[in-house]
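Hi R.,

Here's the chain you asked about this morning:
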Amino acid sequence: MSTIKNIMIISILLLSACSGSKEMQKATPSLKAYLGGTHGGIIENTELSLIEASEPDAYSGATRVGIQGGGHYEYPLKAISLESGLDIFINGQTFTYQDDFAGFQGTRDLLVSQLRIPLEVNLRLLREKQEDGMIQLKLGLSPGFCFYSVEDQGGPLPDYEKDMFTIGPLLGAEITPLKFENGTSLGASVEVFRSFQKVYSDYYQLGETPGLSYLKFGLVYRFNK
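And the predicted structure, written out as tokens:
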């Protein structure tokens, strides 16, 4: 509950900044759409030495490139802007177990879906070329919820626990070199994220390593104001 309370406080502060700034009230917000790929997911534990009597290749993980998309509103304030919206991530991941000592043999396929509400502060560069900044550097927090579809093959496999809520820092950049006559623009974006929380645990996922991370990449389209 304390984490949710912190998110509410951050959101209130951002809204207060928007309503309290004369410059912000005069500015016009932009609608931005994101679409592309994502790579990441649950960060597996690679330190099998933490597990007593574990075999060297007892456990491994592999992630697959997924898809991502979202819609954001950006509120300009001179050289910076505030941005928030809704992002959706979907990607697959496979854990492989080959541990004769512990008796675990098989694979666990996970489809990880995320709904995230990023809270970003953007530094807008090259505003002389584009009003909103041809280049933007992004820093912020990304609270969100994770939903898991799990399919086990072989067996037996270890029991597991998972958490839905995650939050952590994000860092990103985007460039929009293509400006169209109707006022819209098109460019590319990239973003990285790492959660503070442990989101998945089983026999091999020890310590704080099994958090959540992603690399988000793709296109960004800014609609006409």
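The chain is about 10% helix and 55% strand.

Let me know if you need anything else.
M.
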